[in-house]
Amino acid sequence: MPKTLTIATPKSFSFISTISSHGWSDLAPFRLDREQRRVNYVFRGPDGSALPAVISENGGKLNVVVDAVTFDKELLVLDVRHMFRLDEDLTGLYEVIADDPRLAWVVERRAGRLLRSRSVFEDLVKTICTTNCSWALTKIMVSNLVSKLGTSSLGGESAFPTAEAMASVDVNFYRAGIRAGYRSQYFVELAAAVAQGTLEPEDWLNSSLATAELKKQMKMVKGVGDYAAENLLKLVGRYEGLALDSWLRSQFYRYHNNGKKCSDERIAGHYEKYGDWRGLVIWCDMTEKWIV
DNA sequence: GCGTCCAGGTCTACC
DNA sequence: GGTAGACCTGGACGC
Questions:
Q1: Taking the CA of residue A271 as centre, how many other CA atoms within 13 Å lie in the half-sphere pointing to its CB?
Q2: What percentage of chain A has pLDDT greater than the value 70?
Q3: A185 beta carbon < 7 A from strand B?
Q4: Cβ proximity of A119 and A235 under 8 Å
Q5: Please, are residues A154 and A123 in contact by the beta-carbon 8 Å criterion?
Q6: Which nucleotide is nearest to A178 (CA to C1')?
Q7: Residue A55, SS3?
């Protein structure tokens, strides 16, 4: 019998804006149901069990329907608060864009919260899967990771694999089974480091390091370059980096440069006035059509 | 059906 | 520190 958790949300929160904020809700173990305005996700209990859930909004609260007999309620609430960033204060963002008519919609639609996975490790692996490939291939790689290495529930739905599970297979498995290509060796090394405790991505959430230093630390992970590190920084709540990739650049050319290519320096200059929020401002600026 | 290009980049060797 | 070339894959496109 499914059990329902109800979680209060802040006034500045928008469920639909958050689940539409970027492509994460299209990556397993997320599954977005746009028509029903809800999102499925498979959580993982402390014992490693898969906990399928359906998350929706009702009257300013999140309803989380969990398809499991027993689970740690407090842990699951913490996961939901983390993923939907219920405790993040975006007042600073709204202040820096207050005089910008082009970005007025951000405040109106309570946008700016970027959906994230239940762990930084999961976001790190997914980010590496976004590099140097089409979005279609990213979805294939992440889907393979979840279905082939994740723990399954009784209903057959899988959670994102643990570092231990990812460390239990070799480079050939990543190449043939995950279709990860040259990223395969990166995943072997990353999973081993996290499983052995020599790398702890969860620490990045509350790191006391300056953002530039934290970015350097992130880039020590094979497969993480400037784009990936800055994307991860956004997911841990630091927005100084623009995380420019080919898609973001093309959108900037379209909206701000008459469709013509320009330098990254020109893009950076455009958003400099937004200070430490510039990485979130450029993302909002390019994704208005996603937020309905 | 086949070949080419490129996509939500990064690493390494070399200068 | 800057740059060229290699790297996997799969979908889109032209022929």
A1: 26
A2: 100
A3: no
A4: no
A5: no
A6: C9
A7: strand
